[in-house]
UniProtKB/TrEMBL annotation:
Residues 10-148 form the Novel STAND NTPase domain. It comes from Calocera viscosa (strain TUFC12733). This is Novel STAND NTPase 1 domain-containing protein. The lineage of its organism: Eukaryota, Fungi, Dikarya, Basidiomycota, Agaricomycotina. InterPro entries: nSTAND1, P-loop_NTPase. It comes from the Eukaryota.
Amino acid sequence: LAEIPPAPVVFHGRTNLVDSIVELVCRSATCRIPLLGPGGIGKTSIAATVINNRRVKAKYGRRILFVSCEGLVTAEGILNVLATCLHVPPGSESLRSVLTCLLSQGCTLLVLDNLETAWDSSDKVNVEQLLGKLAELSSLSLLVTMRGAVRPAGVDWADTCADPITPLSLDAARQLWISIARRHDNNVDRLLNRLDGLPLAITLMAHQGQLVSPTDLLEAYDSDRTAVVETHGRDRLTSLDVSIRLSINSHTMTQNGTAAQLLSVLCLLPEGVMISDLPKILPMLKGARKSVLALVAVALAVNVNGRLRALSPIRDFVMQHLPPGGIALGELRAHYMVL
């Protein structure tokens, strides 16, 4: 089978979550685990830590299959990659051959990483049908990582990881910073609060922190916003801007005509807004509730007890690249002017 990625060298704040997943995949019964959340929250790092765990390796040995779905937009694409990993020859019976091969392996752990590109597409139904077929295999445990907050239909997902992954606590964020930058000053907590517990943002900024103080980085962030949160390269793992833009350009967002407009207005409100107040605040915004569902679905915003809120790095990106305007901005101003 294909080689699995190594565990991350620097990893903080997820011990309880990793331990609970390890318990699930090491019990006698098979399991189906979704790792959901916004881009940069650490889903792949959690999955890599789990599959490199000593107990997990002892149970599954070489029968851990890690498949990157990045760039795949159909169920057929996923199936073809699986066939290649399993050395199954291509043909009209690929699905049956792959399922038969997986079943013959015995106790197997399959990880589908970045599944959102195929699932959040026009081929969603076929992707869910493929997941359902995989989930039916009696000897297969399934772990998927996906941007967003919605679990694919057709699979009985484990309750343990049903909710999206939350940002790091300030203490865990500080540990992550120190592990990489190895230096700090009195403004490190202010900087970390601006990054709102997003591991990718903290990691990228901490690498710069090896040369630049948190005070100077905070000043740079206030000036250049999320554009400063990157290392060499321009992909989702080295640039926070690229990671956020992937979510904004997702199929779910492009299919909703007003979701981006709602996001831009929401990003003016650090504490967010009560969802029940949206028709009153933005009366001209058509389909506001559908737009809320879209933002939550792709994890550009979170719904906490009925309040819709975007993480700070997402707000900063949107304010710089997709600033609010037009009727919605006027309605927002009018509402808060009379309070």
